[in-house]
Amino acid sequence: METKECRQSIYIFIALALILSSLAICKYVSLHSTVFDLGIFLRLFYKIGAYGQLGLFSFGHLLPFLVPWSLFLQLFPLSFAPYIILLLQSSLLSLPSIWLLRRYGYVALTAFVLYFPLWYNALNDFHMDHMAVPLLFGFFILAEQKKIWLAVVCATCVALVKEPFALQTAACGFYLMIASRKLLAGTFLLLFGILYFYAATQYMIPAFTAGRLSESVEVSAFTWMGHGIEEILLFIIKHPLTVISEIFSNAVKIKYVIAIFCVLGFIPLLRPLMLIPALPIMGIALLSMHDSYYAFTTHYTAGLIAPFIMAFIKGMPTAGSLWEKMRLPKKIFVPCIVTVLILGHVWLAPSFLYRYFWIPKHWERHITAYIPTERDAIIKNALLSNIPANPDISISTQNNINLDYLVYRRHILVFPDGIMAPVDRVNPSEYSFNGLISSIEHGQYTQANIEKISADYAVIDVKRPYFVNDNGCQWHYGKCTDKNMEETFLDMVAKTKERYDIIYEMDGFMILKRKT
Fold first, then answer.
1. What is the domain range of residue 389?
2. Do both 319 and 392 map to the same domain?
3. In angstroms, rounded to a whole number, what is the distance separating the alpha carbons of residues 262 and 247?
4. pLDDT tens digits, residue range 153-189?
5. Cis status, amide bond into 37, omega within 30 of 0
6. What is the domain count for the chain?
7. Does residue 24 sit within a domain?
8. What is the pLDDT of residues 382-419, one digit of tens each?
9. Radius of gyration (Cα) for the chain, nearest Å?
10. Is 498 helix (H, G, I), strand (E, B) or coil?
11. Is residue 186 part of a domain?
12. Minimal CA–CA distance to 467: which of 394, 330, 375, 363?
């Protein structure tokens, strides 16, 4: 019987990994991925592996796992990289399905497979955040098996995914202290997580990125509470009512909280201790002024998946007891829970069961996002034919026109960066392609440095969602719903045409070359 369950779990893992990776790869092939962030990671992997630019593992975030990933990708042809990293991401996200089926059965597996954050993390380009999912499941399962120090290893590795996850490592330590009474192991994780986060944000990232941290979107999202960790913590302690008011006065944040709980029937609330490791991620989302942090359609939900699913699993017996106390038929309990899981998936998860998968409201979620068209093929051929492969050529491309051929460059900018800079602002001889490419790639990702870069080519498509840098407009039924964004984007397109010659144009898609 165990051998049969083992085979079934492997088959389900393979099937889930193939489904997720196939959809993710189809989005890339059909030109529905973005430079932020799949394109950026392709560049980072390429430069760390091929040119030894190890300092790039701290490009805005502290990402130690970038180095082994980059070295692994050197085993394959460069053109394979997008497909390999999307396949590996989907496989790592799917890995917990093996353990969940073997240990907890099909209802637990169903909850995991249908939980919408899993799908957004698989299909929203590529991010290192996904590695936290199997590591956190490993932590919970090993802790349950009393293999405490192996659980500690998993929780320690969570901090290495990205520095905000170090707070989750600390929370895992607190969980061990409270739930498992493992004071030594818990104290180690608590101190390690806090110290790692402090060292990363206050010393390591600033050292590698030459001051970018103070100007980043990540930090600016919390400056309403103060500048620096100390000020923010003091603000939270001194002004708890202001913090609570900020959370509950924001309708989107309330929807975020409701969404992550309701699709699991609110059952995780029955095991609140298991949600302790999720608190830092929820706290970051709810305290942020940057809407992408508390949007449940982003990769920032990766740290929630394991704690919420494990709390759901452990809460099921209590939910069953409550069901019986209400004198409801016991035999329909599980079918009702599964129905809730399915409805939550259909309502929120971007799979082929998603309600908007079949309705052409969202450009990035509709079935057409996964089916390469003749127009996509023409655009790719135009890029290959009209933009030289020379890596010293700099390109400013619309964020959602992402292709590996474009990003393997000395400078790849996101439109409209590089358009307004005078052509003589940068001397190409100042930079070595074999060294740290430029001050931008060394981490000084400031507007002052961006303005020094002059793009040789611009790539624009007015028939897809408008992007100004990495800020896009909501694109419903083929139209931008943000008129200010639309005016800004089209104004920049007009200014680009003044400075550049159109060397290729087809159905709203343009390749432009800077006038000499």
1. 373-514
2. no
3. 18
4. 999 999 999 999 999 999 999 999 999 899 999 999 9
5. yes
6. 2
7. yes
8. 999 999 999 889 999 999 999 999 998 878 899 999 99
9. 24
10. helix
11. yes
12. 363
